[in-house]
From TrEMBL:
UniProt catalytic activity: Endohydrolysis of (1->4)-beta-D-xylosidic linkages in xylans
InterPro entries: CBM6, ConA-like_dom_sf, Galactose-bd-like_sf, GH11/12, GH11_AS_1, GH11_AS_2, GH11_dom, Glyco_hydro_11
Involved pathway(s): Glycan degradation; xylan degradation
Protein's UniProt name: Endo-1,4-beta-xylanase
Source organism of the structure: Paenibacillus albicereus
Signal peptide (UniProt feature, chain positions): 1-27
Length: 358
């Protein structure tokens, strides 16, 4: 039975419930102790050395965090890599997010991660509590509507991803606090390298809340991590940004994760959608969507940018294919991109794998 047809079964609610497919999105999960895993296409980790912590894993890249009486605790969602490629080899990395942040003491709202060879712990700090990070001043970078001060520090015989070690820390600290917007992560990496701050092979990039000897809370209400072609990030024609459907924010009554014919998202009825925010520096791009129909009937999904329909993707059968809408004109800056079902007639569902922007 198809999800978008509940009006035909108003008197058969039990039967409907039993008929729902097994790909229903998982409910939020709360963890309270050290744990790593993957959810909705994002790698997550809760790490602490002492105290009381709680992390609720919501859909996509979103999560909430609470802590009290801790020495040090980190809550994060992002992507872990295999430490074999540099950031340049991986492609342009950017994060778009919104959060509420109540530090209650020493805490950071930031992009956080590590590289190996050399071993580096890095921070791009958008907001903080009672302590603003500092160190050896290296310069500034103006990006994403603000200016960040750049610092370098050294940790001697301290915990790290390879055990106790001595390593550099790199910092970009925004001059004016904020709790939402775009963070062009790769631009910070490139600026650091231009200042002689060597980056290694990528181990991790994650939107992170860190608390130190404090109590507080935070709620990340939206979070999209984009990893694209070299130098791209959706900003420059000829380069690419690829966003997995399961990493987008879901909307509508029936939108659900799927594991077949690929790991992705299914839209089962009209107004089902997935969406994310992309920062564009230019106003024309091509959009390629990999997807499939649930059967041999033509399935359709509209592309909306900034609330305006820009075209329709078509998938003619259940075998995954890529459909491209070329030379799409749109606004610049932060734009909400939606993939939305509007023409469902009860004969098909549409399955979405990823969207690539060139």
């Amino acid at each position: 039975m198809k999800r978008g047809r509940t009006k035909l079964f108003l008197t058969l609610m039990l039967s409907l419930a039993l008929a729902l497919p097994a790909t229903v999105a998982h409910a939020a999960t709360t963890i309270t102790s050290n744990q790593t895993g993957t959810q909705d296409g994002y790698d997550y980790e809760l790490w602490k050395d002492s105290g009381t912590t709680s992390m609720t894993l919501n859909s996509g890249g979103t999560f909430s965090a609470q802590w009290s009486g801790i020495n040090n605790a980190l809550f994060r969602k992002g992507k872990k890599f295999d430490s074999t490629k540099t950031h340049g080899q991986i492609g342009t990395i950017s994060i778009n997010y919104n959060a509420t942040f109540n530090p209650g003491g020493n805490s950071y709202l930031c992009v956080y991660g590590w590289t190996k060879d050399p071993l580096v712990e890095y921070y791009i700090v958008d907001n903080w509590g009672t302590y603003r990070p500092t160190g050896t001043f290296k310069g500034t970078i103006s990006v994403d509507g603000g200016t960040y001060d750049i610092y370098e520090t050294t940790r001697v015989n301290q915990p790290s991803i390879i055990g106790t070690a001595t390593f550099k820390q790199y910092w970009s600290v925004r001059q004016a606090k904020r709790s939402g917007g775009t963070i062009s992560v790769s631009e910070h990496f490139k600026k650091w390298e231009s200042l002689g701050m060597t980056m290694g092979k990528m181990y991790e990039v994650a939107l992170t809340v860190e608390g130190y000897q404090s109590s507080g809370s935070a709620n990340v209400t939206s979070h999209t991590l984009s990893i694209g072609g070299s130098g791209g990030g959706g900003g420059t024609p000829g380069t690419a940004t690829k966003v997995e459907a399961e990493a987008m924010t879901k909307g509508g009554s029936y939108t659900s994760n799927i594991s077949s014919p690929f790991t992705g998202v299914a839209l089962y009825g009209n107004n089902d959608l997935v969406k994310f925010t992309q920062n564009f520096t230019t106003g024309t791009h091509s959009f390629s969507l990999r997807g499939a129909s649930s059967n041999s009937t033509m399935a359709r999904v509209d592309l909306k940018i900034g609330g305006v329909t820009k075209g329709t993707f078509y998938f003619g059968d259940s075998y995954p294919a890529v459909y491209t809408i070329s030379n799409v004109s749109h606004g610049t800056g932060n734009q909400e991109i939606q993939l939305v079902c509007t023409s469902d007639n009860g004969t098909w569902d549409v399955f979405l794998d990823y969207l690539e922007i060139n």
